[in-house]
Amino acid sequence: MQNDSGYKLPDGFLWGSAVAAHQLEGAWDVDGKGVSIADVMLAGENHVSRKVTDTVLADGNYPNHRGIDFYHTYAQDFDLFKELGMNAFRTSIAWTRIFPNGDEDEPNEAGLAFYDQMIDAMIEHGLEPVITLSHFEMPLHLVKEYGGWRNRKVIDFFVKYAKTVIARYGDRVKYWLTFNEINNQTSWMNPHHLLQDSGLKDYPEEQAQELMYLASHHELVASALVTKVAHAINPDLEVGCMIAMNPVYPATSNPKDIMMSQRAMQTRYYWGDVHALGEYPTWLLKYFEQKNFNIDITEEDKKILKENTVDFVSFSYYMSWTVSDPENPLYEYDEEKNHGDNPFLAQSDWGWQIDPVGIRYAINWMWDRWHKKMIVVENGFGAFDKLEDGAIHDPYRIDYFKNHIKSVEEAIVLDGLPVFGYMPWSGIDIISASTGEMKKRYGFVYVDLDDFGEGSGKRYKKDSFAWYQNVIKTNGAEL
Ligand code: P53
Would you please indicate which residues are annotated as catalytic (active-site) residues? Predict the structure, then answer.
């Protein structure tokens, strides 16, 4: 039976989908919400970075202001997820709904009440909530007034926000993720990633790398403190880090490429080392010395990191990369330059390489290194979809999911690794994070809106909807 993997997953496996507040809620200035980083990002397109404005301009096209109006439609959208059979849902809390500027003394009750209702609705629909605390949407005020995460004070603001929401929703939300794709900033040469992950803006270019490591250190300490806070509120709560997992393979068997790929993996995934093992890897501390970077890692920080490692590792997986850089004697990994096409892999329309084997490889690699249970909280295929007579035929998406889910099942069943859920991006079509486009679609549910917010907003089931429904019904046995 060509379509069946034959692998049945453990009972209680989480089958869901994942999104982020700023990419679908809209209602960017409703009920006291403050302005976030995502609110000053204009629409971009494939290979054209999104421009960032200093304030919100009256005539700018800011797709995140609209999202798909999920702020008002979530109950109907959860009806569709329930019909599909999902038992889990990942979204983020928009920090700016709770602390609009980030540095207030008291939270915004209207924002807290909104997520009370949304979380209750998830549970009524049989969806186990998985909540991200920070997903590319920090208050713009903290960027402008404090310099983003380069400032140690931001740790306190974040921990206060996290404590507020974990105390409020901890009776209903067991799984918490701290920083979405914290390691995207390996691309510190690209200002987009530094702003999204760390709220870094207006810095001297030659300081970008050092600031990235400094900001990341503060995030890592904040993440450990949030883990501590959550466990103090209720020891049954589980906190995970969130890693963008893109394996970086050597492009050739030249030992210099093998070494470079090892260094690329060490560079991209040290955030996982600190989260899961509670300490910095030696090579990186040596690198800070060689570069004269002052990262301000105090004895107290080291203790916090060591005592509060994560309960699990969550990760996104979309693609793999290759590296070849034999003329680089220091093996410094430059993420913006070092990738070539892998001749064995096809690519999406956005140039993302399609590599189902890579997700099994990645799960094995993370287990060997971190020994933490894992959950896939993003995986998916951004594509152009066409609505014709109320139908969307998306065999390319089904194909992508079929091959990737099979590979995850092999990691679980054949390799015996603890993966406790699979939450593809994004269940329903939403705004793309990298390009701000609506036409780069990931959902099982189509949303009739274009890049300018024009359209009926109506929801339609794609062919992949029924396909994923059956995968969940058979607990992964029929793909
Ligand atoms: P979009 C870059 C590379 C890999 C994953 O991405 C990325 C990014 C975005 O900067 O982001 C994650 O929408 C992210 C989501 C995002 C999703 O992947 O650019 O956690 O917010 O939407 C897909 O196609």
Answer: 378
Order the strands of the 248-250 sheet from edge to edge.
248-250, 321-323, 339-340
Domains and CATH numbers, the chain: 14-473 (3.20.20.80)
- The CA distance from 464 to 347, in Å, is 20
Q: Where are the beta strands (DSSP E) in 160-209?
A: 175-179
Q: 44 to each of 123, 379, 440, how far by Cα in Å?
A: 36, 22, 12
Under DSSP, is residue 376 helix (H, G, I), strand (E, B) or coil? Answer: strand
Backbone angles phi, psi at 392, to 5 degrees: -130, 115
CB of residue 24 inside a 6 A radius of ligand 1: no
Mode of pairing for the β-strands spanning 321-323 and 339-340: antiparallel
Residue 102 Ramachandran class (φ > 0 left, ψ -120 to 50 alpha, else beta): left
Q: What is the pLDDT of residues 284-304, one digit of tens each?
A: 999 999 999 999 999 999 999
Residue 20: CB within 6 Å of ligand 1? yes
Q: Which one of 185, 316, 437 would you pick to mutate in the ligand 1 pocket, going by the greatest count of ligand atoms within 8 A of its CB?
A: 316
Distance 456 CA to ligand 1 centre (A): 25
Ligand 1 touching residue 185 (CB < 6 A): no
Q: pLDDT for 394-445, tens place per residue?
A: 999 999 999 999 999 999 999 999 999 999 999 999 999 999 999 999 999 9
Q: 3-state class of 446 per DSSP?
A: strand
CA–centroid distance for 59 within its chain: 30
pTM of the predicted model over 0.90: yes
| CA pair distance 133, 178, nearest whole angstrom | 5
Minimal CA–CA distance to 221: which of 290, 164, 275? 275
The Cα angle at residue 207 between residues 201 and 210, in degrees rounded to 5: 100
According to DSSP, the β-strands at 312-316 and 238-244 are parallel
